[in-house]
Each structure stands twice: as C-alpha cells, then as structure tokens.
Write a structure and sequence with these properties.
By secondary structure, this protein is α+β, with helices and mostly antiparallel strands. It is built from 8 helices and 7 strands; from the N terminus they run αααβββαβααβαββα. The relative contact order is 0.21.
Length: 262
Amino acid sequence: MSLDLQSLKRRPVLSSAEANALKAGYRTQVPIDANGALAIERCVDVRTIGIAGANHYHTPHNPPYYVSVPGSIPELYMRQSVAAKLTEVNARLAPLGMELFLFDAWRPQAVQRYFHDVWFPAWLQARQPHLEGAALVEEVEHYWAAPSAGAGSPSPHSTGAAVDLTLIFSETRQPLFMGGMFDDVTEDAWTDAFERKTTISMSDAEALANRRLLYWVMGEAGFANNPTEWWHFSHGDQLWAKLGRHPAAAFGGCNPTGRPDA
C-alpha cells in the first residue's frame, strides 16, 4: 500500500495526555509471554540488512554528550521480526525518496544505568536544585526508563523490540526537520509538542508535519510511540502492549552480545 504523504502530514497524533494515561504502569501491569513463539527470537544488526543508522551512544559525535558512553556498542541490534517490519516501512518510504535512520536499538544495561542513575539526575539537579527524591525519579523517568528489574520488568531497549529513529532523504542523507534533537530531555521532545502550540512558525509547521509523518508511517506498520519521545517506537514489548491494549508482551530482555556485563 502506497503512502499518502500529505494525508499523513495533516493527521494529528494521539495527545500526550491520552497516551501518557495509557502508558502508565506498563512495566508492572503487562505480562510477558515467556512461552510464546517470539520469546527466544534472535536479534540481527539492522545495518547488515540495509537499514541506515549509527549508534548514538557509541560515537563521540553525539550531541549533547560528545563522548562515547561507557558500555555502549556500535551495533544496532533488533529482534528479527521487528527488523523485518523496519524494512517494510522503508519499502513504503522509498517512493517518496525517504528512509529510516536509527540512533539506537538494543541497549546495554550499563548505558541505561548511566543515564538513569547518573547523567540525567545530575543534569536536572544542576537546573532545579530543589528536585530530589520521588519527584526527581518521576522527572527522570519521563525520558529514561529505569534499568531492568528482573525478567518481568525489562527496560524497553533491553528487549530488542524498541528503537530510536528518524526520517532522512535517501539521496542527500539529510534528516527531516523534527523541531528538536534526538535525546532532548524537555517537553519539546514530546511527540505532540507542536500539536499543543497556539502560535506556529514556519519551522514549527515543518516539524509538526514531519512528526506526524513519522508517527503514522510507523504506526501503520504496527509500532507504538512513546509519547514523551518523538523518536521512540516499539513492537512487541510491554510499552507496545500497554499502549495498544494487547494482553501480553511478546519480548522480554535479551543479550545479543553474549557479554555477561551487557
């Protein structure tokens, strides 16, 4: 089925109020089908099957960090069936001269712990010294999920079913303008940020249309979007199940590297 570009760009995304209400409790309320057909599915580095990307945490050319994050890896691992869905999205984008570009996929726990426990709390407290305790954790977890807490509560990126990505023009490799950088940790990163603005500039209008396009092209392929991150999509994990009202998640945590510390 071909994409109707202008129709998708005019179609509003789900409001953050509704999406965040659906999202609440996803790691405690959604079971994982450990005996399902997909539970032990292997991962593949999507770069080997023609999907573009560079692991944002491994390269030092990664604003706002500008350093290779300890414990990061260059690979972009995804569950095979989820990677196949990304190739299907690319096939639909190809006639438009566009394709996906991945920032991150499967993520080591060392990276998750660093940002959840160290980097982001420090960033927040430097700007809001009064923020501490439960209020600090709540703000952190708008953008950085807690590390895995046992087999029943894996962090989304530890499942191989979650991915951070954007759209690029295939010929020029230029990213479509989304109105903010990857890993922005403010409400500018919320998928509906430009839907909620009352005054729209030319740049805002471009970002609004492009976020809608990304949201719907991924949504039509069965992916769910994390409402606080325009770039985060998943298929088969607990967040996907909660947002889509599925009875269970297909994927728990996995370790495609084989490293005991990953």
